[in-house]
Amino acid sequence: MSDEQMRNGETAPRRSSGIVEHYCEHPGCSSWGGWGYSRLKDAPRWFCYAHRDEGERYIGRHDG
Predict the structure, then answer these.
(1) CB neighbour list of residue 47: distance below 8 Å, 6 or more residues apart
(2) Single pTM value for the model
(3) How many domains does the chain have?
(4) 45 within a domain of the structure (yes/no)
(5) Rounded CA gap, 23 and 10, in Å?
(6) What is the C-alpha separation between 37 and 28, in angstroms, rounded?
(7) Tell me: the pLDDT tens digits for 1-56?
């Protein structure tokens, strides 16, 4: 994707794609954190598939 051309010949700055890299927050895990869990108004905490139960516990939805 190239910068947009403005009327005066200058280029507009690139816009963020909205993609944010977030990795699993489990200690020692470096997997992609595809599952985000957050409480009201808190920033989400991210966990991978293998550690997503930690996210469930974080928000209080874990049965075990």
Answers:
(1) 24, 25, 26, 33, 35, 36, 37, 54, 55
(2) 0.63
(3) 1
(4) yes
(5) 37
(6) 19
(7) 344 555 666 665 666 677 778 999 999 999 999 999 998 888 999 999 999 999 99
